[in-house]
Amino acid sequence: MKLVSRLRGVENRDCGHQQSVPPPPPSTLPGGRRLSVAAAPQRTPSANVTAVTARDRSRSLCVERLGLATLLHPAAIPTRDLNRRRASSALSSSNDLISRRGVFSRRHYGSVELLPQLDASGQDPGGRRFRIENGDSLGEKEEIFGSPCTPVLENPEFQTRWYFKYFLGKLHQNYVGSDMDKVPFFLSVVLTDANHQCVPQYRAILWRKTGAQKILLPHTPNKPMTVKQILSNFPTMEKLEKGPKEIFSPEIQKDLLLLEEQEGSVNFKFGVLYTKPNQLTDDEMLSNETGSEEFNQFISLLGNRVLLKGWDKYRGGLDVKGDMTGEYSVYTIYEGHEIMFHVSTMLPYSKDNRQQVERKRHIGNDIVNIVYVDGGTTQMSQFNPAFIKSQFTHVFALVAYDSSDNSYKLVVYSEESVPLFGPSLPCPPVFKIPQEFREFLIVKMINGEKATFNTPTFAKKRERTLDMLIKDLYSDYMSDSSKVAMLNRRAFSDVLPDPPRSSRRKEEARQVEFVRIGQALKLDTIVKGDAPTSLATTGLFKRAPWEPQCFYPDFGHDIVCGDSWGDSRLIVGTENSGVFVIEDGVSQRQIFDKTIQANQLNVIEAHGILLFRAEKGRDSKIYVFRLSEFEPETQKEVKSKSDLKDHKLERTRGCSMYAISKPGGSRLKMVICVNRKLTLMQWKHSAAWTAWCPASDTDTVEGFMYLREFQIAEQPSIITLIESTVGGNSDTCSICVGYKHQFDIITDGSGTAQRLFAVQEGTKAHLVSATDLYEDEEPELLLCYNNTCHFQKLSETNNTTEFDFHWNSIPKDIVCTFPYIIAFTTDTMEIRLIINGNLVQTMAMPKLKLICSKNDIYFATTAPEFFHGKMERLQMDQQKVERESMSPPASPHLSPETKPLRLYRIPLNALTGVIGPYDRKCVNETDDSNENKAVENLKSMEIKSSRASASRSCTASPTIGLNPQNHLLHKS
């Protein structure tokens, strides 16, 4: 009761003011959730679910009053507080948009503009600034490019809702403890097989007030990890005064599921506002009784017209009993998300109410609004977000129809505090195929609403809710005398250990009850319609841009390194079998025998040379060969150690690593590390000279010229060569050097090392990579250590970590291909958006090894040939319940080590968008009749990619290649 009283006091303090937008009816909230437990319809308790206790009711009240009522209704926050918070966040959001990404953000995701925020009476309504995304922002006029990415959902729930998907209904362990600052936390650990790929892994969730942190750790048979080892992989959790205690009560599953639900709702509601020309206020717009024929056509494109009375699916806060919110509405499903549209012309109209409060109550309280502008695209310039008097709506999608060519144009306004989100608009933002426009618009709106929940206003409310929930749970489980014995039985024990024989029967009974209650909770969540989209039964035949293509089906050697040679060949170095050339559709061919082990390898096609580092320790050297020696017509026999003598590069004896400049630069440079000395070399011919006189560039080792040496403090683990564009001097460069706990930058000319970034003191650091993101204008490095990615500009000395993001697994390699960034681990491929770090896909692949990413991305795995179609994923999810058991997966009968390696390729053009994103067709999920057509479309749309024009730079936008077919795809 003390908690309830305290929460009521908070509610009264936060909500005692006049609201600018009428609130929803007392019984509902955006998303269709109930405000109070008492108002909810009575549900017959399931025989398998424990009755709701007073503690559960108080927690529900905590979430609904403190979390949802204030979180989902910032209109309920005093105006002075909103303005103050908005002002404090303006600087950081501007830094995010302009400083952190610079030209990149302005080109692809719009720029922050100070719009004339005046209403019809000439008054300033609050000074909100909006980011404009219209395909015509600064920098976009200089280049012509299509949409850089396929519309994909960011942080999709089948990827992010770990506890529901991987823990609930399975045997797992939960712990409670407090960190060094006495802040309580909960930890959940499960041992599971990743998508049944014979890859047993630990999944761990650390529940804190800032949100759930997730990590995926490899499992070593016969060597289980301790809780302490698992916690050490989370930032600031390496040193704890006391170890966490295990919770054996099965009720903890219900509490943790409640914590996970704070990530956001599964379903969405969007406002659709119909406007006529010269309407400058929301009162005028909301007073339109009916829409035009073109508007009705647009509404039918969004979804299906449904009768609200008796509606039993997601209702989005609309009345489904007495037509109080209109007789009809528009509803659809996209990738398992139910969406209800609040269409202004379908909501109740009142001739006596000038403000149309019944309409404003719903549309004004939607985070994302579609504003349909009647009269054609020329009317779009008249719109200003200030016309809509709502502090709650953060994203406006402005839509207009052009009858001259039956196309739709889209412009997006986002309140400046909203983090960047995709997909970015094509240039120009015109869509001529209605279904493509529908998919793009829905994905943009869903991503926009998710991004809005990360604004300071929403994030603080969510953190406050989680803080009180976790403290409440901590107090319950640490002080309840009935649970003490269940807490102290074992601490810092091995995860999922075998119980002692004396208590095995009792332990097995506890495990059975634990799993039974978890499965009942899971079933109840599904029945209520709140399940994540992993169990969805919609979404047809949409191919992801990262879908791999099998390049070589059976390679019998472990690969150490490799690089691509042209469009269809690989040169790979193996562990004990020499070096091979692998060609698509042709048998592998050995070029160096097993006496030569290449540890690093590069194909420099611009100069026709093969560069590789062989042997180890003091005997390690770099060798240079002409590629022409390895053509099938010219190679007479497999080369051995005796053939290396004349190809050894001087000054490289004992080298531990080397780095070369990026392809496409004016000159090839190479930096070589020997102990604590870096040697800089340069190819004597420029790329332009070689292209003009290829027959004259026939050098091998003599082609490299010594430039200078640099002494460094200790032997590095990472070196990256960065060509400089300062002052237009392409002959200078910088070298990023990674040591144990820091990254330094060495500038050619001064030769002195300066601290670039240091890992937080006390953190165990494992440096992964330093990747040069920008090819021009604003040099920036992506520094990856542990499972953290940090963006660091070379022109700045501050080490702000405000925009860092974290991988779910600790990567071994990082690949940047705008707009995606991909992490390769030993058994997973994790794909995120580089602009905001949002997760879009994780794929489990045993014995995964990145080979190269110079052109297309090549990798090896023992996973069978696969195509990630949605139907296959759905079938897997539907069969998942049958395959699940209460015990962790046993060791696989067939070890992945016995399987042959398969080599796969992900075409770069599919990722960057040079091949139009809509070659991967997606039908309207609400129209099952298109299913067969979709299959035929997929079969007929295998278009060979042109790789010459693709760009992996963040600022250099994907450009249209010479392939006329690509050009036509982009124009469409």
TrEMBL record:
Keywords: GTPase activation. This is GTPase-activating Rap/Ran-GAP domain-like protein 3. Residues 256-473 form the Rap-GAP domain. One of its GO terms (molecular function) is GTPase activator activity. PANTHER family: GTPASE-ACTIVATING RAP_RAN-GAP DOMAIN-LIKE PROTEIN 3, RAP GTPASE-ACTIVATING PROTEIN. Residues 954-966 have a biased composition (Polar residues). It comes from the Eukaryota. The keyword Amino-acid biosynthesis does not apply. GO terms for biological process: regulation of small GTPase mediated signal transduction. Belongs to the GARNL3 family. Residues 556-858 form the CNH domain. InterPro entries: CNH_dom (IPR001180), Rap/Ran-GAP_sf (IPR035974), Rap/Ran_GAP_dom (IPR000331), Rap1_Ran_GAP (IPR050989). Residues 1-31, 878-897, 941-972 are annotated as: Disordered.
